[in-house]
Amino acid sequence: MESIALVAAGWASGLNAYLTLLILGVAGRAGWAETPHDLQQTWVLAAAGVAFVIEFVIDKVPILDSLWDLGHTFIRPVVGGLTGAAIAGAQLGRPAAFALAAGLALIGHLTKTTSRLAINMSPEPLTNILASVAEDGLVAVLVALAMAYPKTATVIAVLAAVIGVLVAILLWKFAKRGLRRVRGWLQQRRPATS
Fold first, then answer.
1. Is 157 helix (H, G, I), strand (E, B) or coil?
2. Which residue among 9, 115, 140, 160 has its CA within the 20 to 30 Å range from the CA of 179?
3. Within-domain flag for 194
C-alpha cells in the first residue's frame, strides 16, 4: 500500500476509525490489497468489528451520537495516526506519518461532530440516520479507493478536509449567533430584580 494512502485513511478515521481499520484489515487478510500486517491481526479485526457494530447503532440515535463523538475526540485521531504510521512505515517515518494522519483524522472528526450537532437540532431522527449511513459509505469508498487508487483517494481526502474545515467554521458561526439569540431571549424573559 502506498504511503500516500495514509492521507485518505487518516481523514476517513476521523469519520469512523473502526470501519477504516476493519476494511483495511479484512482487505489485507483476504489478499485483496497489500495492507500493513498489524491491521490484519485477529484481535485488531475483532476489536474493530465489535466497536464498529456499537458505533453503527449509537451513531443513528440523536444526541447519543454527539456524546459518542465527544468521547471519540481523542480516540479517532490516535487511531488515525496509528493507522497512518502503519501504512507509511519507514517510507515517510512513523512520527511524521502519525502526525499527518492524526491531524487529518482530527479534521474529519471535527467536521463530523459539528455537522452532526447541527443535524441534531432537527427533531426528527431520519436526517441523523441518513447522515450516519452516508458517512459510513464515504469511509468505505474512500478506503477502498486508497487501496486501489491512492493518489485519487488522497485528492478526495484533501478536498473533503478543506470543505470540512470551511463547513465547521460556518456551522460554528451559526452556532455562536444562535447562542447569542438564546441568551438575549433569556435575558428578556428574566424578571427584573429590585
1. helix
2. 160
3. no
The Cα–Cα gap between 129 and 11 comes to 21
pTM of the entire structure? 0.85
Place of cell 507509511: 88
Is residue 96 in a domain? yes
The number of folded domains in the chain is 1
pLDDT for 1: 67
Contact status, residue 114 vs residue 171, Cβ threshold 8 Å: yes
What is the domain range of residue 45?
Answer: 5-189
Q: Which amino acid is at 43?
A: W
pLDDT digits (tens, 9 = 90+) for 76-107: 999 999 999 998 876 678 889 999 999 999 99
Is residue 191 within 8 Å of 134, Cβ to Cβ? no
Cβ-contact 161, 13 below 8 angstroms: no
Judged by DSSP in three states, 99 sits in helix
What is the C-alpha separation between 163 and 147, in angstroms, rounded? 23
Residue 15: name the closest of 194, 157, 149 by CA: 157
| Spatial separation of the C-alpha atoms in residues 127 and 120, rounded to whole Å | 8
153, burial (CB in 10 Å: exposed 0-12, middle 13-18, buried 19+): buried
Grid cell 491512492 is found at 150
Close Cβ partners of 70 (under 8 Å, ≥ 6 residues apart): 113
Q: 149 in a domain, yes or no?
A: yes
